[in-house]
Structure to design on (1137 residues):
């Protein structure tokens, strides 16, 4: 198939970017979206032009590196997958495809389609862990029985891959789904409850400092999340935050 | 206020609580209004009570006005911050793919409602204030029904009211159920709450629209 | 023993580690504050080591090429992590885990290291649960286990199909805690380009900031390489696109011996290659072999008909199918170790029984598991005489609960529903058992340079068992390295900060800059990927699942030629002074082009078949691997001497005092 691509090009963080048009022929339906970009890049290199830089690594939907806004949606038209799992069979011959980087003040563009997501790391550093020493001698793993459905719910929250699609999709560029996933995982587990109050306050504070927007409950994040992280987590975080604030 | 503006979650909660407060007010207001259709006598006596009871006038009314102001000022603050959080906007953004129109356009439905409030205040509240505190006219427990019906005589006003009620409905459609999520209610009752809020957001505005239309179609003839 | 001193403590096997920990030198807490450690790579091994070392009081700097430590490729491990907890009461023990691992590795690993691994394995689970890793649980609230290939007990702990991710996020959390305390400085989007030696000791690295292109100098008292494996040598593999051997290879060029480079694991259950455009292969977890049965048609005509799309696999009756693993290995059946399963698939496909367009795929079928689970569920929910459709529906639900995300992933990639038609799978490069040679302390042959996790060679011999990579990464990082490194650093308490303006740093930086300049000066027309793909083809065809002398010799020649062509001609647009993904790739491929040759050389020298290394000349009449303990019971450790062809072989003899060497049999 033949595709008409409109792709954001930006030399570096301080440069002014613009959309550039490319036409790509010979795309096959069983290629992945990123393999389609690989082919475009090979063409550009052979013409002596700089290839389009985009983030990607595992190419199996788990590392959370790939991050493209495709035709106005994070990770493209399909749901429950990342860009690297998106295949060209989701497109038709002659389609125009608009490819942009995630847009958020807290995710500045580094080059072309690559954005800086270290804001997410800083949110995690503010409290996304349980403070136990790794070199210590903790109690036997089975000494802390955890109800299966609680463990499963915690696991569902923990599957967040930190890709940033929630922020990219949200009209407010809010990072609530990301932050709440971690808060929830630990708020649910008995091991995490000791620090729960501090954790939620510190993580929310950092999230706000990074300049993410406010949640207005549109639910776009949940729809676009490649791991299907539920809005329930946001409600849980609101609750946790509220009760933590009351405790002072 | 500054403390509340500091945390994004607190801002949400303020939005939710002030919204819920306004929903309560909306219900109470509706209950009184509907009597204007059912029984003008009751309407007159309740309106008179609301207009002259010092508790309502000097405690509840300021609280209500504060609630309205907090809700829309916070709405503006959120909107400005949220716009800023995006930074550069997308060339193509397909919001319809992942969120309903109402949830993405609360600011617009809100603005229309705010504008309507302006008109509504001018129509009723300013009139009341002038009557009571500027012109110092004597108490008249029987005037309310007639005054109300007269307001809806002009076609244009009725239409504006009706359009506003449609937007109120849209605003409530997202806002009412959303306020529970903001306050952290997401449990086994959520499905029920959702149904209730959606019903409310259709029925109440529809009721208001009905009242306006009813009075427009049934003018008082002397 | 020559230059290789493995420093294995004396005494009985079970006491070695405790004794060693008691005897090695320690650094007192006040002095730890004056000691810097660089850790390259932030996967399970690097991340956990960084967290623990920082917690002990050392100043740690971590480096990763990803944009966050959380994205290291440990995250992609699906199946689980082994530990000798014996929670299932099925007779598991430290010894059994040790024995299984040594046997699974086809008796080419070091007894003492493997025993230590088995010994600390249960600490890993305790540790991770304390950190909030949400392992799967039973209804009683206790931890659940599943079984994996090559063993007869259930000792694998798992978190859905995302165990690696959850363990890595645990380590990342532990790192974050130390970053917050200021004890770890994390450098992301940074790549190590060289190791700096001062007076023969590893004292720092040269790194490139991948965002700005800046070349940076970082010094430390010790350098830990936890940079994973080198499977991307094959171009197509289940590795992350960025995974590379650069750090390990740069260390090798500076004097660290490279051990057993030819020991590569080809994983049996991956999604087959679909075309030339393919950039990456996707693994389907080994846990699928718990319930999936592997087969090809019995008759070649059926295989051909399936290939041509004229016949559907579900149309074949049980009698027309060849469940070749169950046929050949009745004791272990579909759960034979990976090397055995992979070779068996290749054998069937080479014989003409492959089932996809390219003839390089076999079926992995869940139909019988679905029916079995369905029946069970129907019984337990009190249904009487349910029909087949009801049973199938119930069974599909159970299978979905167990493997739902894997099935979904398969469907997204292949566009076929694995609940209704069997999956197609084929082996792919997945892990490298070889790596930097390390002693019992995980120190390479360069003093002060350590290697942990997949980057070292130590624990898996010639084949790794499923769910053991996560175990080894965390064992090295949380429980081994933090102790053993103290023994070395105890001499450094008075050294003070290492300056970065020394002639050694100058020289290393110059080397790096010269090399980049040379890479950028290529005058040809082909991109880096062109060379990488060519290298991959040579490796897969001639150094892949089975090897022979002729092919290996050809491979050596072809790789050397390709390398020469690459250095003269590779085309890299852009500039070295800014973000440049092509330049990053070029540096990595340049090293693969050297390692590839050493790989082939190592495979050529090892004139036996063992584990993942199968030499066609050395097999039993039934086609099983024929090991030669008399002549090859050693670790090959290669010393860098310029060109790979000049590399010098050192042998570390493997001593088995506690396990009797036997022919590995899974029949």
């Amino acid at each position: 198939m033949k595709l008409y691509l409109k792709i954001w090009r930006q030399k570096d963080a301080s440069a002014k970017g613009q959309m550039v048009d490319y036409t790509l022929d010979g795309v096959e339906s069983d290629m992945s979206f990123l393999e389609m970009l690989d082919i475009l890049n090979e063409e550009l290199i052979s013409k002596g032009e700089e290839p389009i830089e985009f983030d990607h690594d595992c190419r199996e939907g788990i590392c959370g590196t790939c991050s493209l806004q495709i035709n106005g949606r994070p990770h493209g038209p399909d749901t429950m997958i990342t860009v690297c799992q998106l295949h060209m069979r989701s497109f038709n011959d002659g389609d125009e495809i608009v490819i942009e980087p995630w847009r958020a003040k807290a995710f500045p563009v580094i080059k072309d389609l690559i954005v800086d997501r270290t804001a997410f790391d800083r949110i995690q550093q503010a409290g996304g862990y349980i403070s136990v020493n790794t070199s210590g001698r903790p109690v036997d793993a089975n000494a802390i029985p955890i109800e299966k459905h609680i463990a499963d719910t915690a696991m569902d929250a923990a599957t967040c891959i930190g890709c940033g699609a929630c922020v990219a999709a949200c009209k407010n560029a809010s990072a609530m789904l990301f932050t709440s996933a971690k808060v929830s995982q630990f708020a649910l587990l008995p091991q995490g409850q000791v620090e729960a109050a501090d954790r939620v306050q510190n993580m929310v504070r950092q999230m706000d400092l990074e300049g993410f927007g406010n949640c207005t409950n549109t639910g776009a994040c949940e729809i676009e999340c490649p791991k299907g992280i539920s809005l329930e987590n946001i409600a849980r975080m609101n609750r946790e935050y509220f009760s933590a604030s009351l405790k002072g | 206020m500054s403390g509340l503006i500091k945390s994004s979650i607190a801002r949400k909660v303020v939005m939710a609580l002030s919204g819920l407060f306004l929903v309560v007010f909306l219900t109470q207001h509706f209950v009184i209004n509907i009597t204007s259709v059912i029984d003008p006598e009751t309407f007159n006596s309740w309106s008179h009570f609301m207009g002259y009871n010092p508790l309502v006038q000097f405690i509840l009314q300021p609280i209500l006005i504060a609630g309205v102001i907090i809700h829309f000022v916070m709405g503006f603050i959120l909107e400005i911050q949220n716009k800023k959080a995006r930074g550069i906007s997308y060339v193509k953004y397909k919001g319809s793919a992942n969120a309903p129109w109402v949830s993405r356009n609360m600011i617009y439905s809100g603005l229309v409602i705010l504008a309507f409030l302006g008109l509504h205040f001018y129509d009723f509240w300013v009139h009341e204030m002038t009557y009571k505190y500027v012109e110092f006219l004597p108490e008249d427990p029987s005037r309310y029904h007639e005054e109300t019906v007269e307001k809806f005589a002009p076609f244009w006003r009725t239409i504006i009211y009706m359009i506003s009620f449609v937007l109120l409905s849209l605003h409530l459609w997202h806002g009412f159920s959303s306020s529970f999520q903001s306050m952290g209610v997401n449990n086994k009752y959520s499905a029920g709450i959702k149904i209730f809020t959606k019903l409310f957001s259709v029925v109440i505005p529809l009721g208001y629209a009905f009242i306006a239309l009813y009075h427009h179609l049934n003018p008082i003839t002397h | 023993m020559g230059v290789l001193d493995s420093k294995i403590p004396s005494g009985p096997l079970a006491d070695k580690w405790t004794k060693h920990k008691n005897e090695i030198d320690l650094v007192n807490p006040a002095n730890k504050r004056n000691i810097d450690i660089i850790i390259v790579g932030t996967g399970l091994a690097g991340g956990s080591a960084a967290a623990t070392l920082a917690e002990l009081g050392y100043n740690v700097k971590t480096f990763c090429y990803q944009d966050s430590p959380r994205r290291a490729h440990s995250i992609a491990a699906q199946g689980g992590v082994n530990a000798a907890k014996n929670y299932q009461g099925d007779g598991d023990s430290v010894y059994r885990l040790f024995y299984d691992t040594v046997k699974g590795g086809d008796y080419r690993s070091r007894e003492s290291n493997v025993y230590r691994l088995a010994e600390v394995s249960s600490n890993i689970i305790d540790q991770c649960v304390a950190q909030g890793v949400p392992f799967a649980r039973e209804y009683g609230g206790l931890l659940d286990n599943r079984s994996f290939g090559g063993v007869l007990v259930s000792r694998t702990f798992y978190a859905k199909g995302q165990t690696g991710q959850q363990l890595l996020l645990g380590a990342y959390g532990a790192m974050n805690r130390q970053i917050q305390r200021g004890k770890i400085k994390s450098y992301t989007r940074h790549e190590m380009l060289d190791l700096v030696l001062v007076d023969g000791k590893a004292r720092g690295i040269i790194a490139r900031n991948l965002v700005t292109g800046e070349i940076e100098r970082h010094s430390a008292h010790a350098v830990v390489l936890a940079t994973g494996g080198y499977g991307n040598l094959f171009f197509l593999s289940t590795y992350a696109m960025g995974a590379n051997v650069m750090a390990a290879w740069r260390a090798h060029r500076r004097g660290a011996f490279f051990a057993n480079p030819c020991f590569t694991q080809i994983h049996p259950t991956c999604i087959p290659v679909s075309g030339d455009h393919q950039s990456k292969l996707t693994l389907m977890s080994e846990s699928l072999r718990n319930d999936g049965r592997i087969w090809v048609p019995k008759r070649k005509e059926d295989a051909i008909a399936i290939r041509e799309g004229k016949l559907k696999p579900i149309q074949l009756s049980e009698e027309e199918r060849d469940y070749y693993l169950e046929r050949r290995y009745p004791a272990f059946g579909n759960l034979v170790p990976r090397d055995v399963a992979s070779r068996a698939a290749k054998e069937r496909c080479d014989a003409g029984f492959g089932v996809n367009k390219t003839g390089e795929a076999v079926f992995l079928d869940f139909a019988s598991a679905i029916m079995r689970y369905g029946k069970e569920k129907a019984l337990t929910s009190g249904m009487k005489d349910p029909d087949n459709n009801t049973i199938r529906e119930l069974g599909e639900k159970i299978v979905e609960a167990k493997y739902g995300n894997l099935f979904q992933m398969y469907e997204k990639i292949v566009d076929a529903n694995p609940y209704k038609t069997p999956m197609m799978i084929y082996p792919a490069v997945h892990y490298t058992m070889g790596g930097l040679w390390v002693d019992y302390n995980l120190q390479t042959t360069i003093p002060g340079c350590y290697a942990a996790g997949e980057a070292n060679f130590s624990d898996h011999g010639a084949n790794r068992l499923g769910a053991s990579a996560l175990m080894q990464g965390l064992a090295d990082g949380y429980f081994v390295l933090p102790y053993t490194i103290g023994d070395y650093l105890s001499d450094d308490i008075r050294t003070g900060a290492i300056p970065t303006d020394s002639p050694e740093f100058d020289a290393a930086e110059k080397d790096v800059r010269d090399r980049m300049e040379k890479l950028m000066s290529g005058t040809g027309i082909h991109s880096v990927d062109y060379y990488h793909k060519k290298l991959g083809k040579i490796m897969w065809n001639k150094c892949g699942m089975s090897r022979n002398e002729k092919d290996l010799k050809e491979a050596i020649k072809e790789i050397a030629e390709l390398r020469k062509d690459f250095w003269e001609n590779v085309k890299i647009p852009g500039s070295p002074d800014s973000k440049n993904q092509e330049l990053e790739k070029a540096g990595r491929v340049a090293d693969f082009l050297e390692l590839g040759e050493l790989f082939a050389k190592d495979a050529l020298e090892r004139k036996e078949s063992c584990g993942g290394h199968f030499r066609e000349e050395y097999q039993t009449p039934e086609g099983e691997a024929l090991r030669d303990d008399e002549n090859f019971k050693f670790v090959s450790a290669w010393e860098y001497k310029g060109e790979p062809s000049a590399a010098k072989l050192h042998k570390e003899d493997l001593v088995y005092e506690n396990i009797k060497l036997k022919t590995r049999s899974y029949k």
